[in-house]
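ARCHIVE CARD
Drawer: 12
Card no.: 0347
Subject: one protein chain, sequence and derived structure
Cross-reference: see card 0346
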Amino acid sequence: MEPEEMSGNITLVQYNCSSINLSFTHTFLPPVFVIVFVVGMVSNIWGLRSVYTSWKNIGNINIFMLNLGVADLLYLFTLPFLVYYYSGNSHWQFGQAFCKVTRFCFNLNLYGSIGFLTCISIYRYLGIVHPMKVMGKITSCHSLAISALVWIVVIIQILPDMFFEKNNLKLPESCFDTTSDDRIREYLHYSIAWTVIGFAVPLVIILLCYGHVVVVLATKANINPLLKQRCLKLVVILVILFSVCFIPYHVFRNVNMKTRISKLDGVCHASFRNIYIAHQVGRCLACLNSAINPLIYIVGNDDFLMRLHDLSKRARMSVVVLTGAVLYRRTVDVDSPTDTGVTSDLMKG
């Protein structure tokens, strides 16, 4: 029976204290995953197509965007299997090996995205704050080498996750996103180190880079207004990504594992259920980055921005011409009766 104390006082674990109510997970996750799959596939294919069409003029940052899109697609391809799993009351029917591959793809996408967003931030910082020092010194080969290094570092970070069980004897058809209770203590230590290296350190780097960029943009008057506007938009997108998608996930993933350990130690709080729900919401927010990342294509792809600017200019001109034609026609329609009346009076005179 669930503890009835709602004041937050510690109580001994009773019969159902360690059990999890999965109804929220089974109801909430599948529709979110479906939406992310549809929106993410369309937006990433469209974004990658814009990179492909300008491949001859590809820049250093575009290489990171290409890798960002690949990371998104790797995860999006696994979402139909997760939708089937959670809509089927958490019964995984594709084998434990593929379960680990699915979780691996999620982590690869998440930390690959953070890595490439960090690279984009550093490149923007160097291009704005130290343009003369890096002019002509950073080539596409450097960007390709850095991209390969990011993939290697991310894989090293997430590879230990493959060696943790994703089910247990009581739930052999499960596919846990972390691990079983038998190894949860060990996994928590790994997760905290993982959070610091894969999330906190890149976050600090991005904050330092864009903090300096914003200061430079605000104090220097000789910077191209288009570049200034683009960088500010990129800052806004990254703030949304980290505050909405990444921070809640990392906080509640570790806190939820801590509550699981507390339950194993014979301690239970009524708030543990809310923490579990917050963790599920954080997982959904984390997967949203696959649908939000293509916004980086818009802000960072110079050729796409020029085409979008030309299209917007032509649209404004069409609206102006159309509005002028409508106003002219209205003027003619209003003036016509008066002219007819004047003509009639002259004829009568």
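Annotation on reverse: The chain has two domains: 18-300, 309-349. Residues 302-348 form the longest helix (47 residues).
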